[in-house]
Amino acid sequence: MDPKDMKPATLAAQAGGAIDLQSGGVVPPIQPSTTFVRDRNYAPLNAANTYARDHNDVVRQAEQVLAQMDGGAEALLFPSGMAAIAALFRTVPNRGRVVVQSGIYWGTTKWIREFCARRDIEMVEVEASDTAALEAACAAGAAQIVWIETPSNPWLRVVDIRAAAEAAHGAGALLVVDGTAATPILSNPLALGADMVMHSATKAINGHSDVLAGVLVTRAGGLVWDEIANDRASAGAVIGAFEAWLLLRGMRTLPLRVERMCQNAMAVAEFLEDHPKVEAVFYPGLASHAGHALAQQQMTGGFGFLLSFLVKGGRAAALEVAGRLNLFHRATSLGGVESLVEHRHTIEPHTGIPENLLRISVGIEDADDLIADLGQALGQ
Q1: Per-residue DSSP letter, 49
Q2: 199, β-bridge pairs
Q3: At what angle do helices 314-324 and 367-378 cross, to 10 degrees?
Q4: Quick one: CA dihedral 149, 151, 156, 158, positive or negative?
Q5: Per residue in 100-146, pLDDT tens?
Q6: Which entry of 53, 110, 119, 324 is annotated as an active-site residue?
Q7: Which residue, of 35, 134, 156, 314, is most buried by count of CB atoms within 10 Å of its CB?
C-alpha cells in the first residue's frame, strides 16, 4: 500500500515500514557508529552512509514518517525544537525582515529577538490571531519569514493558517507554523498553504518526556530548504541515533495518545469552566473560546492537550492550587503521557503573564482521576 494512501495511525504504527531486513525484526535497529567503512577501491560499502553527522538510517526513518504524517515532501530532525528554529532563521539575510506572532512560547520569542538584534534584522511582532493585524504587518514590507504558532502557548490562541499563508506569500515570505500543540494528528498546516511546519518533538511526538528533538517539515523543498539542510550538516545540529530511535518508538503510539489526551483535556476544560474558583479557561475546544469556530475548521480529531486557566484570588491562590495537586506534576514541558502543571509567571514574570495563570498539559490518565485532583486542589 502506498504510504500516501495511509492514515496517520497506520503510518505511525508501522513506523514507515522500518523493519530490519537483515534480522527480520519488526523493530528498526540502532546503528551507533559515527563512521562507515569503504572497500579496497575506496567506495562506500553503503552509498548513503559516510559519517554520522548527517548520515544515519534510523534518523532518516524517523524523518520519513514525520514527513508523511505532516503531508510534506521532506523532514529534517534536530536535537531540539530551538535548534530547528535557529536553523530556519539563520537563512534570513542581514537587514532582512521577519513577522513573528506575539504571545507565543517565550523561548522562541527571546531567541528570535536576540538573533535579529545581532543581525540587524527587522522583527515585527503582531497578534496573529487577529487576521487583519497580521495582514497589515505583512503588507507593510517585504519579508523572508512569517512565523506563527497555533494553538499558541500558553494563551491557546488560534491563527487562520490559510489567511496567514496568503498574507505571507504576498510579502514574498515563507509561512512557517509551530504545530507543537496540535501535532500532525490534529492539524495539517502544509495542506492549508504553509511552507514549513516545525514541531518540538520533545513534546507529544515523542510523548514520554525522555527525548529532546525538533523537526522541520517542508511542503515542497526549495533553495531555503537546501540551505537549512546544508547548515544542519555543516554546523552539526544533528540528533543522535539512540534519540532518533526513541523518538520513532514514541511516534508509533502518537495517534492513540493524542486521542486520549484530547478527550481528557476536553473533560478537564469543561470541569474548570464550570468551577466557581476559576476565572477563565483558555482551550479552543470550548464554545466560549474566541477561536473555537476556526479550530473546528483547522483541527481534526480534537483540540489538543494543552490548556490554561485563571484562578480566582491572584498569585497566592494559583500557587496554592498548584501546590495541592497530586497527579499533575509541577514541571516545565507539555505533551507527555503524564499530566503537568506550571505557574507561568514564576517561569517568565517579565512577559506580562497573569500571576494567577496555571498552564496544564493533560496526559493519558483517567479523566475522572484528573478532575478529582483538580477539584480537591481548587476546593469543591
Answers
A1: -
A2: 215
A3: 140
A4: positive
A5: 999 999 999 999 999 999 999 999 999 999 999 999 999 999 999 99
A6: 53
A7: 156
**The domain at 3-251 falls in which architecture?**
3-Layer(aba) Sandwich (3.40)
Could you give the C-alpha distances from 218 to 27, 67, 145, 221, in angstroms and in order?
27, 8, 14, 6
Per-residue model confidence as pLDDT tens digits over 311-330: 999 999 999 999 999 999 99
Q: Which residue has the cell 534584522?
A: 121
Q: Which CATH architecture has domain 254-378?
A: Alpha-Beta Complex (3.90)
Q: Point out which residues pair with 309 in neighbouring strands.
A: 281, 358
What span, in angstroms and rounded, lies between the C-alpha atoms of 145 and 256?
Answer: 33
Q: Say whether 53 is catalytic.
A: yes
Cell 482551550 appears where?
A: 283
Give the DSSP H/E element, type plus range, for residue 256. Answer: helix 254-273
What span, in angstroms and rounded, lies between the C-alpha atoms of 324 and 340?
13
Is 178 considered catalytic here? yes
Cell of 378: 481548587
Catalytic residue, candidates 57, 105, 283, 344: 105
Residue 315: active-site member? no
Range list for CATH 3.90.1150.10 in the chain: 254-378
**Which residues, at least 6 apart from 224, have a Cβ–Cβ distance to it below 8 Å?**
91, 174
Which pTM was predicted? 0.95
Beta strands in 47-173 (DSSP E): 74-78, 97-101, 122-126, 145-149
Query: How far lies 80's CA from each of 76, 107, 214, 237, in Å?
Result: 11, 12, 4, 9
